[in-house]
Amino acid sequence: MHTMWKGTISFGLVNIPVKLHAATEDKDVKLRQLHKECQSPIKYEKVCPVCDREVANDEIVKGYEYAKNKFVMLEESDFAKIKGEKGEQAVEIIDFVKLEDIDPIYFNKSYYLSPNEGGTKAYGLLRAALSDTGKIGVAKMMIRSKEQLAVIRIYQNTLVVETIHYPDEVRSVQDVPNVPENIEMAKKEIDTAKLLIDQLTTEFDPEKYHDDYRTALLDLIQAKKNNEQITTAPKVPAQDNVTDLMEALQASLEKAKKDKPKPKQAQPRRRKTTATAKKKTASK
């Protein structure tokens, strides 16, 4: 299993070297967007609208837009300062609570924890302590340059980190529109609903639930593939440097012609009049 992160968990004076692994994976069927005319994949490029060109990753900086088109620029050194001395390799357990005290709306993403070198005994110590007390640890940690609130609990003999939302990240239920307050219900209606719930009540078995849409979509894709209802994206034509060079030279030539100052036109010579010619003859 791929290791995403290495660090330590601390509670009190106990430090546990651990590795972090993603506990879940996205199994959505990934569909590419193609050009209908030629079935080529559509590219998404990072383009600067002012410079009118594609921008490389090393040319990109981060900024916070505090007003329309007004930004506060942030450097990597700024992020390093606010991460503090502990950096991204420390998970500090600050409280222990009961799992049922946390509403599921707060839970975000799950990660498995495994002991790193020299951390096996301390890992087992925390696991046993959590199991015996029935508690979970509330901790803070840095993941992908963001401080996360998390809980550490046991799942099938393995320590799990569950990132949870901060309270201000959970929207208020008061903002949900059209939620009815008190609705009068007939006792018979409530009893019937409760009876239906009782009949459908069972122990939770995650293996019985399947993504029927994903299965149907994959079956459809396979059937089309078997029937050779497929397409191959055409090769992107290589850029002809010679052509590009000639175009650049031609454009430069045209520009040079426009920028070149026009030569001054020669003044037409005046023809000598008969009177002037006779005067010059007489003087001789």
Can you tell me about this structure?
The protein has a 7-stranded mixed β-barrel with strand order 1-2-8-11-10-9-7. The protein has a two-stranded antiparallel ribbon with strand order 3-4. A two-stranded antiparallel ribbon has the order 5-6. With 284 residues, it is an alpha+beta fold. It has helices at 76-83, 120-133, 187-200, 212-226, 241-259, 274-283, and strands spanning 5-11, 14-22, 47-48, 53-54, 62-67, 70-74, 90-97, 107-115, 136-143, 146-155, 158-164. Among the domains are: 5-29 and 62-169, Ku70, Chain: A, Domain 2; 183-226, no CATH class. A hairpin with a 2-residue loop joins strand 10 (146-155) and strand 11 (158-164). The protein is extended, with a radius of gyration of 37 Å.
Index terms:
single chain, 284 residues, alpha+beta, Ku70, Chain: A, Domain 2, seven-stranded mixed β-barrel, two-stranded antiparallel ribbon, 6 helices, 11 strands, 28% helix, extended
Average pLDDT number: 83
Order of strands across the main sheet: 1-2-8-11-10-9-7
Q: Give start-end ranges of low-pLDDT stretches.
A: none
> Topology as H/E string?
EEEEEEHEEHEEEHHHH
Secondary-structure blueprint:
Blueprint (H helix, E strand, L loop, with lengths): L4 E7 L2 E9 L24 E2 L4 E2 L7 E6 L2 E5 L1 H8 L6 E8 L9 E9 L4 H14 L2 E8 L2 E10 L2 E7 L22 H14 L11 H15 L14 H19 L14 H10 L1
Parallel strand pairs: 1-7
Antiparallel strand pairs: 1-2, 2-8, 3-4, 5-6, 7-9, 8-11, 9-10, 10-11
Short description:
The chain has 284 residues and is of the alpha+beta class. The chain has 6 helices and 11 strands.
